[in-house]
Amino acid sequence: MLKERSDEMSRLGSQVVNNDTSTASLGLLRRVGLRLLEVAHRARPARRMRVVESLACGGKAQLLLVEIDGKSFLAAGGTDAVHTLLALPGESS
């Protein structure tokens, strides 16, 4: 009976150690992952250009509303080229 109790206590003790190790490992992995995300976010340069909207005009042609450094431009694009049609007045929101 005493031997069985001792074996049971040893088994429970090893489970506690394994659980503590697993929890510590998960905590470490979480901290490392969060740190990598912070570094990646800081390293990304601010974007100066974005396509606000695009409209398909048939075939492979499209009309694009593009914002560059807060200024809006209307552009037309096809398979071989993109042309600026118009610089729109005013600030974009």
From TrEMBL:
Keywords: Cell membrane, Membrane, Transmembrane, Transmembrane helix. GO terms for cellular component: membrane. InterPro entries: Flagellar_biosynth_FliO. Its main location: membrane. It is found in: Cell membrane. One of its GO terms (biological process) is bacterial-type flagellum organization. It comes from the Bacteria. This is Flagellar biosynthesis protein FliO. It comes from Terriglobus saanensis (strain ATCC BAA-1853 / DSM 23119 / SP1PR4). The lineage of its organism: Bacteria, Pseudomonadati, Acidobacteriota, Terriglobia, Terriglobales.
